[in-house]
Amino acid sequence: MRRYASRVTALALLVLAATPFGVVRGTVTMSPTTPVCREGVPCSGPAKLVELRFVRYGATVRTRTTAFGFYSVKLAPGPWRVRIPSARFGFRPRTPVLVRGRAITRHDLWIDTGIR
Question: Whole-angstrom distance between the N-terminal and C-terminal Cα of the chain?
Answer without folding.
Answer: 65
